[in-house]
Task: structure prediction
Amino acid sequence: MKMSGDISRLRVLSVFGTRPEAIKMCPLVKELERCSIDSMVCLSGQHRRMLDQVIDVFGIKVDYDLNIMKPNQQLYTITADVLTKMQDVLSDATPDIVLVHGDTSTSFAAALAAFYMQIPVGHVEAGLRTFNKYSPYPEEMNRCLTDRISELLFAPTTHNRENLIREGVTENVFVTGNTVIDAFKTTVRTGYEYNMPEITDIVRQSEGKRLLLMTAHRRENLGTPLRNICNAAKRLIEDNEDAVLIYPVHLNPAVQETARSILGNRERVYLTDPIDVVDMHNLMAKSFLVLTDSGGLQEEAPSFGAPVLVLRTETERPEAVEAGTVKVVGVEETRIYNEATILLRDRAAYMAMQNAINPYGDGHASERIVRLLMDWRMRSLS
Result:
C-alpha cells in the first residue's frame, strides 16, 4: 500500500465530477478540512456549469481540475479521459487514500486509476444496488466495480451494507448515513431568497397553490418513457387547478425537445433552466410533491416532508420505499397520473408518506467517515 512520506498526517484526495457527487462530497471535504487533515480536491469536470455552482456554494478549494467535458461526450471518452489524466494527478498528490462517490463514470475511472497505482480507495455511498446491470445505466455497473476496487466502503444504510455482505464484501464496510443530509446545514435557510429571479417569481405567483417539483432526464427514460412522464404531468396540471408544476429541464437536447413540445406554453407549468443546488434544496422545502427519476432527490426530498414518486421501474434505494417516503411508479403515463392523483386528493395517503421517517441519517455522516478514515490511518501505521 502506498503511503505519503509524512506519516504524521493523513493525505486524502477527493475526486468527483458531477453536481450530485459534489453536493454529497463537499460536506465531507469541509469536515476533512475542519479536522486538519491534508485534504486535496480533484474535479473531473464531467459536468461543468452545474458542478462549479456547487463548488462555489460550499467554498471548496480545488487543487486539480481535469476539465474533461466536451460537446456530445460519450461514456468511452469520459472514462478514458479520467483514467489517463488521473495518473499525473496521483503522482503529484501522493495521497494515502482516494475518496470517490457513488456511481458516476468519474468515480469508477478514478478508482481504477488509483488501483493501478496501488493507492487505497474509499467509496462514499457504497453498496447501492438494483441488481440490473443495465438499469440505471451505466451507474449500476459503475458502483459495483468501484465497490470491488475499494478498501473502505462507507454504506449509507444497513440495507446497503447487507448488499455488500451478500456479495462477499465483509471487511471495512461501515454504515455512516448519507452525506447529502449533512449538506442541508449549508444550503437550507429560513427566509431564503432564490438566486434565480425566475424561481422567485414562480414561487410568488404560486402562493396558495400546491407546488409539484419534477425532474426527469435519465438516459434510460429518453424517448417514449419521457413522453409518458410529460403527458402524465400535463394531465395532472389540467385536472388540478390548485397545482403548479416546476420542471427544471436538463440541458440534453433530447430532454429539452420532449419537455417543451408537451409541456411548453401551458398555464401553471414552468419549464426552467437547471436550478443550482441551494435553490433546489429550498424549493424542495416548499414542494407538496416531488416526481423524479433522480437518485439524489429520493434521499433529499423526504427530509422536507415531500413525498416522492420515482419515475423509474426500480430503485437502488429500497429503504426509502420500505420507510414509506418514496414510491416507485414506473414510466407509464396512466400509473404516474393515478399515483400522483391519489396524493393530491387523498389526505390520509398523503400524510402517511409525508410523516414517514427518512432512513438516510441524522446529518453527521461526514463526521463518521472522517473518524473512520483516521482510525484506518492509525491501523495502517501500526
Q: What stands out?
A: The first strand starts at residue 11 and ends at 16. Residues 105 and 138 are 8 Å apart (CA to CA).
